[in-house]
Amino acid sequence: MSDHEGQSSTSFALHCFINGEEQTLETTAATRMLNLIRDELELTGTKRSCDIGRCGACMVLMDGIAVNACLTMAYQCAGKSITTIEGIAKNGIDPIQQAFLEEGGFQCGYCTPGMIVSVKALLESNPEPSDDEIAEALSGNICRCTGYGGIWRAVKSAIKMRGSNR
Amino acid sequence: MGMNVQETIASPQVWHPQTAAEAWHLKQSLGTDSIYVSGGTLLRTQWEAGIAAMPKHFINLSSIRGLSEIRVGESGLIIGGQVKLQACRMNTMIQRYFPMLTEALRLTAAPSIRQLATLGGNIASSIGDSLPALLGYDAEVVWFNGIEEQLILLKDWLQIARNLHPERLLLRVQLPFQQREEADGLEPGHEELVHSKTKRFYAYHKVGRREAFTPSVVTVSISGILTEARIVKDIRIALGGGQMIPIRLEQLERELIGETVDTQTIRHAYGRVVQLYEPREDIFASSAYRQTTAANVIAAELWKIAAEA
After folding, report:
1. Mutation choice for A interface testing from B108, B112, B116, B209 by most A CBs within 10 A
2. Which of A87, B97, B253, B285 is the most exposed place for a label (fewest CB within 10 A)?
3. Which residues of chain B are within 8 Å of residue A12 when distances are taken between CB atoms?
4. Which residue, among A98, A94, A97, A133, has the nearest Cα to A115 in the 3D structure?
5. With a cut of 0.95, is the ipTM above it?
6. Mean pLDDT along residues B190-217
7. Which CATH fold topology does A95-165 show?
């Protein structure tokens, strides 16, 4: 077994890209991405809630795909490109965020970063999703305030906005 | 906010074997202080809930070569144990030839979890929601036992799953293609013409405590072939859900073959499901509730099949 194939020591140097910037984080292999993002990098837009992948508040993009940062361990992120809500807004407010603002897609706002990340992942891969596809894509994001009506309108609006910008 | 499990104990060491043999040897040498990890999504829920302790060593299976592909083989469609659930969910071959599996995976967790979790993990848990669908297709599973590969019917493995050595490593699942005859070329739907006087039917249902992204209370797959005269030519019924290891109701299947699907047959099937299925209860649902739910789903599906025949 080569070094790469062998045992990872308790300390682990994670090489990855966070919001487009190359990072090397000294951590442990099993540390959750959520802890690294919030505690080490102080990117607190990613929210902590259920810790078991049930609420979607900690959603981030890993190579463009939405994953739960509370379930993703450091070694699973090696070499990957991670985008948090701060990365989505890096070049100004994203049309998806604008749609959430305009349509009242939030109340307390705790679930909103995760919602926006999930919508971003959906629309990047499928710019004109059906209602069933929207419902499936957001099935892992729970909101306890809105009743989802505003979120649904925001997604529909974001689809239109992005379509007219193309 | 409280600390999570990971923050309260020393961080485990992660091993990255490149072959099944390396993984197996690591498991042998590290013993109960170690665990195979694929996506790790189910394990995380167990650690956080305190159902299981986080071990000192993770054996990462995702770096093992050759376990992350879906391909057509002589024995049918072959799905590697490390293929992500979402990759299976979106695979066009699976959608076309094994639609109950597609539906089962659509109803499993949420896309973000399915991007991490693997089919191998779902199967190896012995309670995954994909299992009733796989049972409906006579799936075979291939394990590595440290010396050689062993092929076993999924339904047989599930009967002994909890008594087997944890070192065993799931390599792949094989789904034999069904004889499709004139069904080829038709879009997947609730039923398909097999030839002019028979129809193939299939359905997968998951009953949970809410509409989406919910643990299962009952999962059902039902599939088979019905003649024009509504006589059952072939049928497979599989049940699971909650902490139950899924099973085929083979006795009921035998009783239904050759019977006309009518009110009497449906009533018989309902009663036999309640008699034959013995689900475990948990804090959310009693055994009787699960039995009744399973019987209702199967009776409703038979009714639908007969009405459409």
Report:
1. B112
2. B253
3. 14
4. A97
5. no
6. 79
7. DNA polymerase; domain 1 (1.10.150)
